[in-house]
């Protein structure tokens, strides 16, 4: 007898992040680039080593389990771009 529903059988598996993908933590946080994706010697499962720049411009790196992140689009919508203001006060590329 069939003991699973069609909903469960047709549910697509979540996409696995790979090298070069842009991800964010499901709990929130900065956009990160995946530098390594795969197994590690001390833990089971699929792991990601990600890099990103913090709010001070420092390069950061950490390791996350695949199920902790979600894949994001590689491009950023124009509404999310923030222009930097140099010491002179005019935006770079602005008028």
From TrEMBL:
Superkingdom: Bacteria
Pfam family for this entry, one: DUF2158
Name this polypeptide is given: DUF2158 domain-containing protein
Organism listed in the record: Paraburkholderia acidiphila
